[in-house]
Amino acid sequence: MKPMGIYIHIPFCRSFCPYCDFYKVRPDGELMQKYTEAVVNTTASFSHIYGRRPVDTIYFGGGTPSAVPGSFVADMLQAVRENFDVAPDAEITVECNPSSDLESFLPAVFAAGVNRVSLGLQSASDGERRALGRASDAARVKQAVALVRAAGIENISLDVMLGVPGQDRESLIETLEFCTGLKVPHISAYMLKLEEGTVFFNRRESLALPSEDEVCDMYELTCDTLESAGLKQYEISNFAVPGFESRHNLKYWRDEEYLGIGPAAHSFADGRRFFFPSDINAFISGAGTVDDGPGGSIEERLMLGLRLAEGVSDLPADFAGRVAARADLAPFIEAGATTLKLNRRGFLMSNRVIFEILEMI
Predict the structure, then answer these.
(1) 122 vs 341: CA distance, rounded Å
(2) First CA to last CA across the chain, in angstroms?
(3) Which of 39, 84, 109, 310 is the most exposed place for a label (fewest CB within 10 A)?
């Protein structure tokens, strides 16, 4: 049986970033303890439903996982080991906010088996970081990377945002040089999206945002700079030294199975998609998941797989051929007999191009 991934959502944040629409609540000692117990119990319940499945990736995301005591993360990880067959070389990731107390958090999670860390940089410009609600400066991010490496862990990822308020080509170059100077093996570079319900969305008319053309230029600059530094683009927003791609996130894009634990966490297992409601109290009380229909269709494979540089393979020959014959899509794709992938221009126009391709099914 092919190994699955496990995602554990840690919804606690000490401050709420103005661009973030992920489910989150303020940290509270008693609430965090109850939440940890609920994650442990849910992990056991999933094992009863799906059996002691092999697992080769575990991902602690948020929220801010580093906002909780490291011992709580260790307890959750131990529950996964007790209920699933975790591979000895499993990729185990934890997201960290550099402003957290990493000096006490990191040793506890490393001792529990965490071997990959994703740090929220967003920008090396302290002015841009403040606009994004980040409490620490770039110097603290550099210190955080050093703390991770001091523990013997080199599998480090930095998050970068493109198109943020006040950003221009020069400040982006500063951020990219900061990242490449640290020689981390993975960088995620996301374009800012104004999500409904966020502070940025409500203030969208007054934000000093770069133009669409400027953001496209920033994206191409990012791709060229990172690839020149040895970080190969393997997904629309992700770059890695070969061998350091996020194995967990590749499961999502390759439409493979995973279990999500926590409020707002989604799962795909045994051909079905389901999720927990966005309600921490309901989760702690033992509320079940909500069915989200079947998964694994060709539409899903294309929607997710076309985000990858490798694209989608094993397609019906007549379908790949029909897409390749579309004059309006040809500038954005590369097609083989049964394969399809987007080129750099296609990545920039991915929403529209993928929509047009899905309309052909």
Answers:
(1) 28
(2) 30
(3) 310
Q: Which H or E run includes 6?
A: strand 4-10
For domain 4-252, which architecture applies? Alpha-Beta Barrel (3.20)
Q: Look at residue 11 in the predicted model and tell me its pLDDT.
A: 96
Q: Which of 247, 229, 117, 244 is nearest to 186 (CA)?
A: 244
Measured CA to CA, the distance from residue 58 to residue 233 in angstroms comes to 23
- Kind of pairing between the strands at 156-162 and 116-122: parallel
Helix (H, G, I), strand (E, B) or coil at 36: helix
pLDDT < 70: residue spans in the chain: none
Residues 278, 292: Cα–Cα separation, whole Å: 14
Q: Give Cβ neighbours of residue 281 (< 8 Å, ≥ 6 apart).
A: none
pTM exceeds 0.90, yes or no: yes
φ, ψ (nearest 5 deg) of residue 83: -110, -10
The secondary structure of 68-106 as a DSSP string is S-HHHHHHHHHHHHHHSEEEEEEEEEEEE-TTS-HHHHH
| Other CB atoms within 10 Å distance of the CB of residue 325 | 10
Domain boundaries, the chain: 4-252, 311-361
Q: What is the pLDDT of residue 15?
A: 83
* Predicted pLDDT at 185: 98
- The number of residues in the chain equals 361
Residues 6+ apart with CB under 8 A from 201: 194, 195
Nearest to 233 by CA among 308, 183, 293: 308
Nearest to 280 by CA among 93, 14, 32: 32
Cα dist. 45→267, 288, 345 in Å? 14, 10, 45
> For the chain, how long is the longest CA-to-CA vector?
60
